[in-house]
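As the next step, I selected for study a record pairing a protein sequence with its backbone structure tokens, which the following lines show:
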Amino acid sequence: MPLAPVKPLVAIIGATGTGKSDLAVDIARRYNGEIINGDAMQLYHGLPIITNKITSDEMKGVPHHLLGRIGLEEETWTVGRFVENALEAIQDIRDRGKLPILVGGTHYYTQSLLFEDILADQSGPTDTPTQRFPILDEPTEVILERLREVDPVMADRWHMNDRRKIQRSLEIYLKTGKPASQIYEEQRANRESSPNADSPDSATAPGLRFPTLLFWVHASKDILNPRLDARILKMLDRGLLDEVQSLSEFQRTYEAEPGIALDQTRGIWVSIGYKEFIPYQTALSSGQASASELEKLKKAAIEKTQAATRQYAKRQLRWIQIKLLNALFGAGQKHSLFLLDGSDLSQWEEMVLRPAEDITGSFLSGNPLPEPTSLSALANEMLVPKRDYDLAQRPDLWKRRTCETCGTVAVNENDWKLHINSRAHRRRVNGSMKKDKNRKNGRSKNGEPPEADDVDALEAYQVSPDKEAP
């Protein structure tokens, strides 16, 4: 007789604009569920258009949790704080006999919640479930300096502007009392010494916290991108510019007192759909720009917002294809993820809704699940990791390099190769070669003698021992 899973969880992932929220609501209504938000921007109060929150009508009476929990002046939750609050919500939902359903596009939140993670869960001698670390709210340079003191390996691992990762590495040390680099190294050693070390389903990999069923709602790029572009235009029709104005007014009011300033390099202030419209909003508020100038600024803002949204969807897809799939394979859970092809909205019920409801029913009943790759040709193609390792689990590949030509900092081998093969790098190298030729002829680019301190960046790049030739 089939055994129903104890403490089941359903998680819905995918790029923005693929219909994750709609599917979550349908499954919740069918199986007595409640929904937990896993989107970092939707944690903020208000701004339903900029953050693309689900509307009351779209909720169809299904309770939603972790929406609108942060003030506009606050920083986005750390991973640890999100996991703590999400676990509380899951327990509350279960205590009332309901099915918890996680949905959202911030996939580093999702993955940290789904997997048993000693980096997040292990408690140091002074740690408590509700303990906060004020330093994590400090400016990035302050957090980085503290990280250098306690874990120089991880401090050197991240780019100086990558606040989230710097913050996360310090949070791990504060919670566990051990440097994250040491924990990663111990995990790597355990995997290599395991009898199953050569297996993608190595038993030493972190497992899922709960019996979990995952749905990946996917749409092909050539279909999703026009859909995302159109969504930005719909957001404008719904009042996006009013929210941009309200955010700007909030900033002015909040900063009215001397010595108070909002950090607009993080949190809601870097949300897609706000920062792109700042030049237009500023010109509009000044009252000095002509109608043609305003129209030009508005068009540029729309195009930037559309491009940023497409890039965000691409990053979400890469996270799933590299990090999440590797984590599932490593935990022996590759049969827990089902890709649903949502490319053709006219076939939503046939390709997405009906399979998801049937698979959820089998999962909750403890019945056998179909082979995930059998659902569609797209599933068969996509349910394989894009790369056979997760860089976060490979400290041996962490190698910080600085391009002497461009000044670009790469923190791993993959980023370095991407940079030296980029068009921007090649242009700069060619420019350096031309400058070098002029210098050898005794003239600078503008015909003047070269400055004595004008260093040949290309030569420095070529002779530096830790660099590879383009």
